[in-house]
Amino acid sequence: MKEIISTKEAPSAVGPYSQAVKVGNTVYLSGQIGLDPAEGKIVEGGIAAQTRQCLRNIAAILRNLGTDAGAVVKTTVFITNIADFAIVNKEYAEFFTHDCPARSCVSVRDLPLGALVEIEAIVVL
Q1: Could you tell me the residue range of the domain that residue 8 belongs to?
Q2: CATH number of the domain within which 90 lies
């Protein structure tokens, strides 16, 4: 059975999808962009600020699940400019400080709402 996971601490879905879906002890988090859940808009400050907000949104969903970054086993990072990889990596390293998850990073042409970065995650509880 799948369980839909949702929290007001992270941005609401902007389309026909869920913030996260739990199946057994595995949770699949939809991609999070640098959307401030309180303001409903992309945070200002460029790629670093957006990456931090993506990770805050992920942290909010993890808190709702009663866990933290240590439960994340895989992430996929989408960035619109591969030249921003080092900046994204720096912010990412401040969130995942040890036993880091497996990760893919892909450069894409565009992201929803003009975002510069999007991060999705798989969590095992």
Answers
A1: 2-124
A2: 3.30.1330.40
The DSSP letter of residue 111 is -
CB burial string 81-108: b at 16+ within 10 A, e below: eeebeebbeebbeebeeeeebeeebeee
Chain-wide mean pLDDT for the chain? 97
54 catalytic residue (yes or no): no
| 112 DSSP 8-state letter | G
- Give the whole-angstrom CA distance, residue 85 versus residue 79: 8
Of 99, 112, 101, 89, give the one whose Cα is nearest residue 42.
112
pLDDT digits (tens, 9 = 90+) for 64-104: 999 999 999 999 999 999 999 999 999 999 999 999 999 99
Number of domains composing the chain: 1
Spatial separation of the C-alpha atoms in residues 92 and 102, rounded to whole Å: 12
Q: Which of 105, 110, 118, 119 is catalytic?
A: 105
The pLDDT, as a whole number, for residue 54 is 98
pTM above 0.90, yes or no: yes
